[in-house]
Amino acid sequence: MSDQISTALIRWKILTGSAAFAFAAAACIQPQAMGEEPPRPAEVKFDDMQQRLTGENSRTWVYQRTDVKQGASDECKQGDVYRFAANHSVIWEHCENGHIKEDQQRWALTQEGPDVILTINDQRYTLLLKQAPTGWWMKLRTPSESKTVPTIDKEYYYKEE
To answer: Are 88 and 11 in a shared domain?
Structure first.
C-alpha cells in the first residue's frame, strides 16, 4: 500500500472511527495483501530444462559478474559464472584467492519426484528455472543435511539478447 493511501487511511480512522476505517482499508487493499499470491513467473517443464539451460550450444549463467583487475592478468575481485554446454560439459569460472579459476566439469539432470536435480560432478543441487520480466533465472539449492547446517540458495541469471 502506498504511503499516501496509508496516511489517508490513518486520517480517516481518526475522523470516523474503526468500523469505517476497516471498510475503507478493505476497499484499498490490493488482492496480494489480502492473502492472494502475486502472479508467479512460468516454471520450465523437465523435458525443456536442458534446452533452457544450454540453448543450442551453450549458455552462460551469472551469479556474480567476474570483476577483473586491469591488464592482462588473471587477477580478480569477484566472480561466479557457469557456462553449460549441450554436450553435458560445464565450465565454472570463479574468483578464488584473487585469481580467476576455470573448472571444467560434467553435468546431468534427473527428476526425483517433483524436484529436478542438477548434478555437477558429484555435487547435487535442486534446480529451478523461471522466466522473469528481465530474463531468465536459475536457482541452485544445496539442501541442508541437518538442522544446524543452512540450506544454501544461489540465484544465477541469463539475459536473452
So the answer is: no
